[in-house]
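can u do me a favor
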């Protein structure tokens, strides 16, 4: 699987997105990451393994403490991919805006 597909697949799960959001604030242990969720530590660990395989997180080692940290490179790849479609959306919104203004003008003309 290519990197972009792997990243998108890993982020398809809301629990994993929440973990990524938490790690954006800084390193955290598995226990800290598991705290907001009503699931077992092994279940959280499975989510972390998916994120780690996708390259979205890494785990360090500091004595007994194994902090997880966010790895931003795969997120940049998603941002770059989405950016290619921004012009499409901007054009669509511009056309919608023009259409709505036309409807308002027509409605105002009909009322006069």
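np, heres the sequence
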């Amino acid at each position: 699987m290519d990197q972009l597909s792997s990243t998108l697949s890993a982020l398809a799960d809301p629990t994993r997105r929440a973990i990524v959001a938490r790690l954006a604030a800084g390193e955290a242990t598995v226990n800290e990451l598991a705290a907001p969720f009503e699931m077992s530590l092994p279940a959280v660990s499975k989510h972390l393994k998916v994120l780690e395989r996708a390259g979205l997180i890494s785990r360090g080692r500091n004595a007994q403490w194994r902090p997880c940290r966010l790895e931003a490179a795969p997120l940049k790849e998603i941002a770059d991919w989405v950016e290619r479609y921004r012009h499409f959306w901007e054009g669509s919104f511009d056309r919608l805006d023009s259409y709505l203004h036309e409807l308002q003008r027509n409605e105002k003309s009909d009322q006069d």
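The first strand starts at residue 57 and ends at 59. hope that helps!!
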